[in-house]
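User: I'm putting together a small comparison set for a docking exercise, and I want a reference complex before I start. The sequence is below, and the ligand is 1,3-dihydroxyacetonephosphate. Could you produce the 3D structure with the ligand included, as structure tokens?
Assistant: Of course. I'll restate your input first, then give the structure tokens for the complex.
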Amino acid sequence: MKTIIANLKMNPTSEKEADEIFNFYQEEIQKFNRVNLIVAPPYIYLKLAKEKGLEVAAQNCFYEKSGAYTGEISSLMLKDLGVGYVILGHSERRSLGENNELIAKKTKAVLENKLMPILCVGETKEELKIRENIIKEQLKSVFSLAASDRIIIAYEPRWAIGTGEFCNPQTASEIHQFIKDFIKDEFGINNILVLYGGSVDGQNIEIFLNQSNIDGALVGGASLNKEEFAKILEIANSK
Ligand code: 13P
């Protein structure tokens, strides 16, 4: 069974629109029983998505449980809300200054509070030549602090995010295998889920999901487009 995560990023801008998109996901998912859909809206719409019966992920969280951390949300609060997953280390957060060390601390806290981290890794265009080393460092910093088979990995080449320039599916498959082998060899963890993210749409999803080591997709822009997203779910369900 493939996993599709809809990362809504900082969208939509009203609760009314959020309600509409959640109703759409709800209707779509009822048509399929062979795809695992997780919706990652902004924090303020998590409760609403949950009330619609959707499986939900937060897009970030802080590593402390509570305290004087203005503007932060803890994984304990997310747990209390019924959130099952937290995206961590997304490239858009790395661009805002998050480093491997901070992401590792957040991952540890999320695991301690019994939520599942969705850990994003991936290289920039300038790092393409040293891609494996970059990914190894990103994985190593997290797994050395918090090794767990409950971590979902998302391989998101940073140059492919929101650009329409998606990774060659064969290359993505090789990187997925590299990630799985590295986690197994270094940390003794088998069967880790690895999803692909970066300009996934209704056209290219099939070639990605045809690769047996690509366990699903982390979808940004196309998750806000009903036609595209319906196609993605339908294809994922058929794999
Ligand atoms: P796009 O699908 O818009 O490229 O975004 C991918 C992403 O960042 C998902 O987390």
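The pocket of 1,3-dihydroxyacetonephosphate is lined by residues 7, 90, 156, 161-162, 197-200, 218-222 (CB under 6 Å). The chain has a mean pLDDT of 97.
User: Thanks, that's exactly what I needed.
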